[in-house]
């Protein structure tokens, strides 16, 4: 089987910020910078996997109370006040006929975060134990993780919009609770874990490039 040359074998480095591939010394005490965005060029991030594991574990710890604690207190038109968790809010929205909003909140707050946790731990495990397997598929998975990170705070935005809308129209009162803070922290930590993971590790080592 023909072994395809890697960038590191050719003396090339890809910038992790803007993606530009440039020629740079890989073994040198001098620091090299990207000519386009001026970020420091590093063949591999030192300790990137360890930081990704730490952020992933911290995000998972925050995600537990984010689902157990209420994300908001709701009181509508002088009625009784009740606290709503993420799943409880989804059930309430569905019961009230707001099926579209309930589906958006469920996907953004439950389904996608769960898939992100599983996908990230899958990448971290495979770069250590099965590095030559399905490289292209794992690289696409990492790009998906990066892309979906931009929408990770959607649930926090939805709560903010509900608070503003209900109080502006004097329909009742909604107050954010601790659950939304834990959820926001878990989202931020997951994004940090994704950014700490060096996707170039997927292409290290010997093995095929089959999907």
From TrEMBL:
Keywords: Cell inner membrane, Cell membrane, Membrane, Transmembrane, Transmembrane helix
Major localization listed first in the record, in broad terms: membrane
Transmembrane segments: 53-72, 101-127, 148-168, 174-193
Pfam family, one: PqiA
Cell compartments where the protein resides: Cell inner membrane
Taxonomy, superkingdom: Bacteria
A GO-annotated cellular component: plasma membrane
Protein name, UniProt field: Paraquat-inducible protein A
Organism field: Dyella marensis
């Amino acid at each position: 089987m023909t072994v395809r040359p890697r960038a590191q074998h050719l003396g090339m480095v890809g910038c992790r910020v803007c993606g530009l591939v440039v020629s740079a010394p890989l073994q040198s005490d001098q620091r090299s910078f990207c000519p386009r965005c001026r970020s420091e060029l590093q063949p591999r991030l030192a300790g990137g996997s360890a930081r990704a594991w730490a952020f992933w574990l911290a995000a998972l710890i925050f995600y537990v109370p984010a689902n157990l604690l209420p994300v908001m207190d709701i009181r509508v038109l002088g009625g009784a006040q009740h606290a709503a968790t993420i799943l409880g809010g989804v059930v309430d929205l569905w019961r009230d006929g707001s099926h579209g909003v309930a589906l958006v909140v469920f996907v953004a707050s439950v389904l996608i975060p769960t898939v992100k946790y599983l996908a990230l731990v899958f990448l971290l495990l495979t770069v250590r134990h099965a590095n030559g397997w399905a490289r292209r598929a794992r690289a696409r998975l990492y790009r998906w993780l990066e892309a979906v990170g931009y929408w990770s705070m959607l649930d926090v935005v939805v709560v903010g919009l509900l608070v503003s809308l209900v109080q502006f129209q004097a329909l009742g009162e909604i107050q954010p609770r601790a659950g939304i803070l834990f959820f926001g922290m878990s989202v931020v930590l997951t994004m940090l874990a994704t950014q700490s993971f060096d996707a170039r590790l997927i292409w290290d080592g010997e093995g095929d490039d089959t999907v």
